[in-house]
Amino acid sequence: MAISKIKRxxxxxxxxxxxxxxxxxxxxxxETSHPKARITFEFNNKEYVVDYTLYRNMYPQTVRHFIExxxxxxxxxxxxxxxxxxxxxxxxYSYNAEQYAQYSSGGDTMSGYFTDNSKESVYYSLFENxxxxxxxxxxxxxxxxxxxxxxxxxxxxxxxxxxxxxxxxVLMGEYHNNINQVITSxxxxxxxxxxxxxxxxxxxxxxxxxxxTSDQIIQADYKSNCATSVFSVQVGSSxxxxxxxxxxxxxxxxxxxxxxxxxxxxxxxxxxGTGLSDKTVTTTVxxxxxxxxxxxxxxxxxxxxxxxVKTPIIIKSVKITKN
Length: 323
Prior knowledge:
With 323 residues, the protein is of the alpha+beta class. It has helices at residues 60-71, 97-104, 110-116, 120-128, 254-269, and strands at residues 21-22, 36-43, 46-54, 78-79, 87-90, 136-137, 141-142, 160-161, 181-182, 194-197, 207-210, 218-221, 231-234, 246-251, 280-288, 302-309, 313-322. Strands 4-17-2-3-14-10-13-5 form an eight-stranded antiparallel beta sheet. A hairpin with a 2-residue loop joins strand 2 and strand 3. The longest helix is centred in the C-terminal third of the chain and has 16 residues, at 254-269.
């Protein structure tokens, strides 16, 4: 999901070097290592409840972000907008029963539904009103002493400090291919029952700063730190590996996930009339209307083909049941 109102651009000089560290450390206050979330799905007039364990001890930034959005009710009453692979994508578009039925009957006009029901502006408003904790910044300030001189470290590098004015409305990517993060033990893999924070890949080489812990400010690629609210529900084999996407939660009972997936598959296998097209619709959607941090023209209007079920897969609610 893109941000329509990009206010801040990347400026200033950047840190050199890449730092390896353990993602088990956190800038946030940890209540428990493993919070719990309950996602209530609805498909074909039947509810499916799945309880998830969130791994804050390994992925603190992502879990905090997911919890903050959930507590604001952001994820309630949404649709799975792309079910066509083993990763169902959700977290960007609201469910409106009347409009969904109207648009899904018109083939490619389904793109109009996603445009009308995007929660992009709601997400941005939450960020602007301080409801989401920043973890990515366009720039930093330099630390100065009482005389206004720039403080330098033992290697004579200027010491940087975070200024909230540079905060960006995106989430740091907690996975190995981003600044060589290392989970010392127990890292989650991309398997059935997992939740992954999702981002649309970009070509930009633009740099940002990330804060994996309270005492670290690290230069990183924007394209690896540009997630917002979209996440995937893995129901089958996945091409989104844990080295490129943050796998931050796992279903307590995978059977609860497969029951829902099998219900959808059974519905689709019982195609009628002209076949599967009677029950699904494929449409092309612009998922990034304005990309203010990318130098690449190809990133400014990213197109994505969604495959949606005409009988919608609905996220009725996402509730945090244990903090």
